[in-house]
Amino acid sequence: MFDVEKIRHDFPILSTKVHGKPLVYLDNAATSQTPKQVMDVIVDYYSNYNANIHRGVHYLSQKATDAFEMARDILKNHFNAEHREEIIFTSGTTHGINLVANGFESLLKEGDEIIVSALEHHSNIVPWQMLCEKTGAILKVIPITEEGELQLNTYKSLLNNRTKLVFVNHVSNALGTINPIKEIIELAHNADAAVLVDGAQAAPHIQPDVQKLDVDFYVVSGHKMCGPTGIGALYGKKFWLDKLPPYQGGGEMIATVTFEKTTYADLPHKFEAGTPNVCGAIAFGKAVEYMTEIGFKQIETYEHELLEYATERLLEIEGLKIYGPSSNKTSVISFNIDGIHPYDIGTLLDNMGIAVRTGHHCAQPIMDFYQIPGTVRASLAFYNTFKEIDSLVEGVKKAKAMLS
Ligand SMILES: *Cc1c(COP(=O)(O)O)cnc(C)c1O
């Protein structure tokens, strides 16, 4: 049974007040809140077994190493990776993407092509532009439709024997659109191109099966799925991770070092130079376990009901437009009201204790497409309630009355 009131007790921050009003937290696509089960793991780590890992023979180091590697197994099972060494701990999605982009530098040559989508977060655009500058490869873009969906026919026409890589997000952070990544991956593989999927925005809502998807790389951030900031994971097919050169040099990632030649450690350590975020990884593992216990299917179903209710209620407001009204989306609503700047609505909502995001959401190309400076974005999580949606709708109505 999905019991939202019981779940909310796990999140102390949800009962705080902001400007004297009960907090209504609707900025989950920027970062999610942390349940006390995850906080307990952090306190336990620093209270009882804080130590550096992999190198120590002593008790604490062994214990920390075991917990860190156990977290890798939790993620391996969650994403259904074939091998545990296909999970690399990173500091987040941005780090994971840069690691892969850096690795491909030695595999690309002038005239090769990279395809990205027009729905991407800046962190999935800029690293590829940098890669193209360094290698002479050419960046091609899959355009979107008015509904905020990718134009698959154009994508098909962009693929050819020069295409080496395709980068697309699983879910758009600005609009919430769920992209047909299985089809995108199949088409890319038919052209012998590898695919990296940015799963930052999908992972909090959908449990992906990397083997079924046959995806080459899948990246996520811990802080968007109830874990702490500064930790994330990269799934990479063993074939590719063996092929790519290391990202950073340092301790932990080497097998032998002499001044003549260094040989690299085996996976996953080859990509985990230096002391990793040990506590973060353990807490991330706990966050995944926490969400799994609630159930990703239950989360998806409940969030969908919240989304439908919020969409219907917001559209009661005259002059309100929702961007990217795809029928296939997660619980993100990006909207504007005729003649009112999104920032002004966001500021007034904040005064009422309601946290939303305003602006371009690190996705300026999407804003350019709709010819707007930005939107107000309400992004819902499984711990939000119908009552909070009512507060949002009342808040937007009040803001509109004050600003028109
Ligand atoms: C948040 C986000 C990122 C960046 O994640 P970081 O944790 O800041 O590295 C990348 N892509 C998408 C779709 C996102 O939502």
Termini, distance in Å?
A: 44 Å
CATH architecture type of the largest domain: 3-Layer(aba) Sandwich
Strand elements, count: 17
Task: Please name the CATH topology of the largest domain.
Answer: Aspartate Aminotransferase, domain 2
| Uncertain runs | none
Tell me the overall shape.
globular
Please bin the fraction of helical residues. 25-40%
Strand residue percentage: 15-25%
The profile of the biggest β sheet is: 7 strands, mixed
What binds here, in terms of ligands, is: pyridoxal-5'-phosphate
- The largest beta-sheet arranges its strands as 4-10-9-8-7-5-6
| Structural class by SSE content | alpha/beta
Mean pLDDT: 95
Number of domains: 2
What count of helical segments does DSSP give?
14
Cα radius of gyration in angstroms: 22 Å
CATH classification class of the largest domain: Alpha Beta
CATH homologous superfamily caption of the largest domain: Type I PLP-dependent aspartate aminotransferase-like (Major domain)
